[in-house]
Amino acid sequence: MAKARVWHFIEAQILEVIGVEYIDEIKVLACSDEENYINKHKFRVPFVSGCRELGEALSRVRERAVLIRIQVLNYMDDDELFAFAKRISTSYDLVAQTKQMGRLPVVLFAAGGIATLADVALMMQLGYDGVFLGSEVFEGSDPFKRTCSSYSSCCDALQ
């Protein structure tokens, strides 16, 4: 991943040509352009964009950002959290819980391409609350016994 400044599409073009896997569009100066983000539709490489609130996040997604970076809650004290909760018309408790968890307080599921118990273990260690197993797990003879056996072995190995 490499950084390109907001509006500096030439920087993004150079990064794409040299083969970076992601472009992180950042605001580095107080004078950075708040309105004219890079037209991400002209690039094959995915973009990461920062935002301060949901509307801005949705705008970055519409522009084709594939990762959104939101850090504002991490730096707020209790008074700022309270004011922020009031400004967005939600409860202080929900905002404080979001800050404490470091993510939205919703159940986070992984799905798609989860075919082995190693895949499940990876998703759980990455912080997912649940995993939808692919049907491949249940193919073959006695899938229940095989899954339980693999699960026990996997859990023993990870502890």
Automatic annotation (TrEMBL):
Q: Which Gene3D superfamilies match?
A: Aldolase class I
**SUPFAM superfamilies in UniProt:** Ribulose-phoshate binding barrel (SSF51366)
What GO terms in the biological process aspect are recorded for it? amino acid metabolic process; pyridoxal phosphate biosynthetic process; pyridoxine biosynthetic process
The PdxS/SNZ N-terminal domain covers 1-71
Gene Ontology molecular function: amine-lyase activity
Specify one Pfam family: SOR_SNZ
The transmembrane segments are 106-128
Record family assignment: Belongs to the PdxS/SNZ family.
- The protein in question is named PdxS/SNZ N-terminal domain-containing protein
